[in-house]
Specification:
elongated; mainly beta; four-stranded antiparallel beta sheet; 90 residues; four-stranded mixed beta sheet; OB fold (Dihydrolipoamide Acetyltransferase, E2P)
């Protein structure tokens, strides 16, 4: 009978750098226009007044001001509403 020896499994081959996601400027902090407020994968936090969202879902400050976080209810396509965090600059 012909056979092939067991190849084994490699468990430590995933050596990627972290993406450095998360909140970069917290509530009450002063920001200037263009600063990164939140780095995220997908739209976990919503962009509110005084902010804009870029192609990779990063939320930036559109104006100079102070960062605030607010809880809002977001309606989904199915009609269900879910609580979300909205980032805004005043």
């Amino acid at each position: 009978m012909s056979h092939v020896k067991a190849g084994g499994s490699s468990k430590n081959i995933h050596n990627n750098a972290g993406q450095r996601l998360g909140v970069k400027r917290f509530g009450g902090q002063k920001v200037r226009a263009g600063e990164v407020l939140v780095r995220q994968t997908g739209s976990t936090k919503l962009s509110g007044p005084g902010t804009y969202i870029s192609r990779n879902f990063t939320i930036h400050a559109a104006i100079d001001g102070v960062v605030e976080f607010a809880k809002v209810k977001k309606g989904k396509f199915t009609g269900k509403t879910v609580p979300r965090t909205q980032v805004l600059v005043k």
